[in-house]
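Marked as duplicate of an earlier ticket. Keeping the data here for the record.
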Amino acid sequence: MFAVLRDLIRYNIEFAIGLVLLLSVVIFSSLSFFAPVDPSLIYVTIPDQPPSWQYWFGTNSRGQDMFWQLSAAFRNSLIFGVTVAVLSRIISLTVGLTAGYLGGWVDRALMFVNDIFVAMPIFPILVLFYFVLRNDMDSFTLALIMACFGWPFDARLIRSVALGLKHREFTRHAIFAGMSTRKVLLEEHLPYVMPIVFSTFLNNMLWSIGFEVTLAVLGFTNINNPTVGTVLYWANSHSAMVVGVWWWIVIPVILIAMTFLGLFLLAVSVNEYIDPRSRLRRMGA
């Protein structure tokens, strides 16, 4: 693992840039654990103060210090993205490996369900869930719902790899040795798909955070929970750009761009590293 990370940093400038961008956002979000006040409280500072030595990111019209507010918001959004990505990876791994290895009617049944989820319009369904749950729609509930829709494309990709692994010599040896299906999938096939899982993990984080921001800006989440989207929601509600409180929108957008660009560069770099020809070309072989 460390050798892979070393090679990516050494030979892939995109990976190094993406890692620096994402680590910067992660370090910034971790500062929220040392916040002097609760970021959800309002009117604890002087409203509409521009960035200064006292308020590095300024204050908003709700009397909140934007530095600590954004730190908590990015922490919650990153945790949300990781939660969705982990849960959807578990589903995609289970479906993809099982369908590829067992084949037959199991494969057809799982891929039929997979295709149904692929065809579903996610955004209207999430809005419908908001109106049904409303008061109970917290970040974890939304993460669970989104995880149920974030697995089908990756499950089909994992299945395609599992179909090839099924007929490899080491799989036949494992079956001949008396290994159960669960052991074959976990001990023999899982290591081969882990690079794909890591790459799709980053893409899924990008997808889920983007959806959360979109829903929150439109007011379809718990707007009192500090996230990247709810920060922009309140900025839009108070007409921040019109009244001249530009830092309430500009600074979050810059940090969002850093986060998305970092995740995108990491995902692209890992995808390239998975391909042996691209990896060797990068290393000058």
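See parent ticket for discussion. The domain at 74-246 is CATH 1.10.3720.10 (MetI-like fold).
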